[in-house]
Amino acid sequence: MNQFTRFDLPLCMVVEEDVFSHVDETIAGYLPEIRGKKTIIATDNFLRTNYADTLNEISSDFGDAEIYEVADATYDIAAALAKYICMNGIKVIIGFGGGKVLDTAKYAAYVSKAVYISLPTTLSNDSLASPFAVLEMENGGRMTLSCKIPTGILVDTKVIAAAPKSQMLSGIGDTIGKYTAVYDWKLAAKDAGTPIDDFAYSIAWMCYDSVAHCDETDLDSPELVRILSRALVMGGLAMEIAGSSKPSSGSEHLFAHAIEEYHPELRISHGLAVALGCVGAAMFQGRDERKIIDVCKKFGLNLDPAAYGIDKDLFAELWMRAPETRPDRVTILSKSSIDRAWLDQVYERMQG
Q: Using CB atoms within 10 A of its CB, is residue 28 exposed (0-12), middle (13-18) or buried (19+)?
């Protein structure tokens, strides 16, 4: 990315308790031009039932905005939502939910050119702020599609604290993955003979540092919610500035993609899968995997593959197939010869 390249940044990012009770007032302070514009709220059935009062209040504050249920994060559903927005003259879309809802709303906003406001109900990954959407395609595979970063991001610490703790752990795992992602990014840049964006690199590394060196480990703590939400948002900004997902996605993500694409029955959250991949990726890179292990232990994140139904054979298969998930992505796996004996050692290290 050269000096003349432009990138988008959110105009609004607020992390506070009960911010969902006054979304309209908060947004109006940053984006007064959307006041009175036709709005739609994308969410899922579970949240519509469990946060009915909150959603109805937001709907009322935005001119009785329609609440639109998103069944899943698929390309067809996102495209249908984009078409609906265009056909009905909708100018603003609010995504209220977890990663699947936010990715669907984000891509629909990009296609329809609507203003997009992100209201995450979990911090399970960086979808709340990234300039990419991961959507399922007709063949069952997933594709990462470019779109725009949200114009506004509001994080309600009370809502995040009420979410399952596994969601916070997933967000921590996704953030920890930057430890190995930035290494792979430099490796890919060297292979291509091109420089990396030092600013984006510094931001991505700062995301990892903010969580790795955080003294607060209570998953219910508003302070940890603030630190993690900012780390995930800054990770999204690093990708926006770099013009790719490389600051946040390396060999550790290829391992996670192998689980998601070849063994979805394991039902491991994306961020936890990234954390599992990060240990092996660090070892393949010849770096100190103890840093990753210690951070995960600090937050109570279990790194034993067996705890997720992954035995040695499956573990080896996942790593062997990981490069297939993104054949165009240069990582340490492109430069290493990883045999079964080495993978067994990695597995045993993660059980230690």
A: middle
How many other C-beta atoms are found inside a 10 Å radius of the C-beta of residue 4?
A: 5
Please list, residue by residue across 149-182, b when 16 or more beta carbons sit within 10 angstroms of its beta carbon and e when fewer do: bbbbbbbbbebbbebeebbbbbbbbbbbbbbbbb
88 and 156 co-located in one domain: yes
CATH number of the domain where residue 214 is located:
1.20.1090.10
| The last residue of a domain, from among 103, 132, 162 | 162
Specify which residues 16 forms β-bridges with: 156
Strand partners for 12: 152
Task: Give Cα separations from 308 to 63, 74, 109, 259, 282 (angstroms).
Answer: 45, 25, 35, 11, 20
Contact (Cβ atoms closer than 8 angstroms) between residue 254 and residue 326: yes
How many domains does the chain fold into? 2
Q: Are 155 and 15 in contact (CB under 8 A)?
A: yes
3-state secondary structure of 2: coil
Cα gap 318→258, rounded to integer Å: 6
Kindly report, residue by residue over 263-307, the tens digit of the pLDDT: 999 999 999 999 999 999 999 999 999 999 999 999 999 999 999
Exposed, middle or buried, 226 (CB in 10 Å: 0-12/13-18/19+)?
Answer: middle
Q: What is the pLDDT of residue 336?
A: 87
- For residue 116, the domain's CATH number is 3.40.50.1970
